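Session log. Operator J.P. requested a structure for one protein chain; no other inputs attached. Running the standard single-chain path with token output.
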Amino acid sequence: KMTEYKPGNYPWSEIPYTSIAFEGSDIEIAESAFADNNHLFEVSFSGVTVIGMNAFNGCDNLNTINDHSSVIWVMNGALENTGWITKRHDDTGLNVLGSVLVKYIGTSEMAEIPENITYVADRAFSENRCKILCVPETDVIYSGSAFINNTSIEHIRFKGTEREITADDFKEAAKQCTENTLIDASGNKVTG
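Structure written below.
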């Protein structure tokens, strides 16, 4: 695992390389490691499993990502403000790295999450026109902010079944929730 870096201390933000290739296995790219590097045009993620928070945020010229089948986790903001995140990579409008759905940029009112997806990243469905989302019945982890700023989704349908969840179902479920406070192993108070 790479050391984590804080804002203003990005060790690779000024390297003049236009292409970087990771090689190995179980590679975790650290938080903010390459943030704001405008030299990068292409990255190969061979062996990368985790892309840390804001790792490539602000790499405006990063348009091409190759060899990403090993990626299983993309943290908040990891690819925000890159050319890659705003570019359509296929007809579905789903920008996927490995088994992670990073962003839906399609224009269709219906989107379908593929069966091979295991994680839906932060802001994956924020601010888009998708009204009907078809999801697999398999185990998919959704980031707590996967749907932030999305006011268009009206139905979530489970593929291969007649089951669906509507916006009204979510509102009704929220009414039934109560706030709980727990103390974790370190003595921290967690309320939700």
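Operator note: Residues 24 and 47 are 5 Å apart (CA to CA).
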